[in-house]
Amino acid sequence: MGLRRDLSTSAGRLVFLAYLGLVVSAGWFQPRYDWDVLGYVGCALELTESDSATIHARAYADVRASVPAAVYADLVGRNPYRRDVAAEPQHFRQQLPFYRARVLYVGLIFALGTLGLSLTQAAVLVSTASAVLLGLLVFRWVARYVGGVGGGLASALILVAAGLLDAARATTPDALSAALLVLALYLWLERRCARAALVVAGLSLLVRSDALVPVLAVLVVARRQGVGPFALTARRGVLTGAVLGGVCLAATLLLRAHGWWTVFHHSFLGYVANPVDYRPAFALVDYAAVLVEALPALHSAGTALLAIYLGLAWIAWRRSREARPLFPLVVAVAASALVRFAIFPMLLERFFVAHLVAAGVLALMALAEVLGSTAIEEKETA
Length: 382
Known about the structure:
Layout: H1 2-29, H2 36-46, H3 52-66, H4 69-77, H5 80-87, H6 89-93, H7 103-113, H8 119-143, H9 148-162, H10 164-169, H11 174-189, H12 194-205, H13 212-224, H14 234-254, H15 260-269, H16 284-294, H17 301-319, H18 326-343, H19 353-381
Helix pairs in contact: 1-8, 1-9, 2-3, 2-7, 7-8, 8-9, 8-11, 9-19, 11-12, 11-19, 12-14, 13-14, 13-18, 17-18, 17-19, 18-19
């Protein structure tokens, strides 16, 4: 029996490592470059350089030396906006506040650049390494509830469904943000280290400020549904939320990052080559029109998957006697995904990796706990 269990455990690890190897291979050897990589490289250069012309020249030279010629041609010539910022150093510099507030991600790119990598290669490495860390964390977490081959398969399936491969290939902070958010949830639920979880959650806000939405959603659950070590008093919850919100606000103000509406307008209503000189006024009609037009995108596999996770967690919750608020947490994660979509109605897969991974693991935990308690009851009855 012990030998069979050992073989099953080893097989589960091999299955998962094979999947993780695919993620690493795709992330490192087949990265996907979009224009954002120029923005992040420019922000990394800003840490030691102040001249706009120099930052512009070095950023484009770094990317040109690191990506295929056809990709570079697309980055600098696809449309009038890209051609403008490729030709005008001041306009390129005005794009950098779109990315500055992601200071932890930019700092990692800069630090890796000092070790000999190009800044573009550093961005690729951060995404790939973050995807690996997230994968290993999920495997370790799932293995606490599902062992053997089943654990390896379950871990891989959760990550495949969440779009980890897409995040690993993207030269953006999404994989790092997802890894930190899931780590914070793991530290709170499994390790019961609330302070460490809050520190990690705070760091995630310096990677993507919109991580504040799922973090606050979890805090609400801890306040309303938490029991025992998972409880949170109203006073402490408000204070924690205020501190985390202050982190986002401080990063935006101190680093002179563009505000939400400027980012929204630039993304949905028309590229702005000089957003520092031209600050579009908020228009509710324009926002509503973009949101309504984007609503059909919710008819997607990701939305369906969240609904499935919600259903499974609800079924398990009705029969569970556990203190951990697993079903309310899945509800909070799903709700935060919808709020995230309302704030920025673009349903790119990499934006929701953390939501789908967290919901999948939580649903699996709820089912495993119910099945485990049922098995114990049957033994006691027998």
